[in-house]
Amino acid sequence: MRDRLVDSLFRPRVGAIAALLALVLAIWGCTGDADEITGVLPPSGTGASTDVTGGVSKGGGQSGGATPSPTPTTNKTPTPTPSATPTAEETPATPFAINVQPWLAMNTLVVAPSNGASPLYPYTTTATVEVLLSNGHRQATAQWDTSDHAIATVDTAGLVSAGNTPGTVEIFATSLDGRASASVTLTVLSKGGAIIEVD
User: Fold this and answer.
1) In terms of CB atoms within 10 Å, which of 46, 54, 108, 176 comes out highest?
2) Do residues 141 and 102 lie in contact, with contact meaning Cβ atoms separated by under 8 Å?
């Protein structure tokens, strides 16, 4: 009788305890799996979802810390800069005459003797000249001429000779390049020494 009473009281409780124990074990087992899953998930707020199979994470780059190497860039060959073409040296400009100044050693002569004998008075004189060039240099040569060959003549060296006709005459000096010219007046007297005025 006693044994039946004990058996009737504890047998249902043992079954319930066993069921409760099984439930606890099941819950504990689920909790351990959750911990493992939680260990591989990324912290919240990173914006990346991890693939537990070891693949590439979505939205957060590659998993495993492998950084892809950058694509190598092709070195561009520098374009050579063309060198300036040397210019030929400019030839200095040829200087030209800008001014002529003639002089006469004597501004008065007498007519030349017809027989070529030495006259009592001088009938020749020397003309000189100074030509100023554009480069600042000066020349002592020029082209000579006279306004009236009957009164006086002049040769290429500047020797002026009175003619056989009294009067005044212009002795011209022109630069060798023909750019400048000037004149000086010569008076030729008669054999008696009288000055012949020419209008």
Assistant:
1) 108
2) no
User: Tens digit of pLDDT for each residue in 30-62?
Assistant: 555 545 444 544 455 444 444 444 444 444 444
User: How far is the C-alpha of 45 from the C-alpha of 63, rounded, in Å?
Assistant: 17
Helix (H, G, I), strand (E, B) or coil at 21: helix
List pLDDT tens digits, range 157-191.
999 999 989 999 999 999 999 999 999 999 999 87
Q: Which of 63, 39, 36, 43 is nearest to 51 (CA)?
A: 63
Tell me the three-class secondary structure of 77-135, residue by residue: CCCCCCCCCCCCCCCCCCCCEEEEEEEECCCEEECCCCCCCCCCCCCEEEEEEEEEECC
Which of 148, 131, 149, 153 has its CA nearest to residue 140?
131
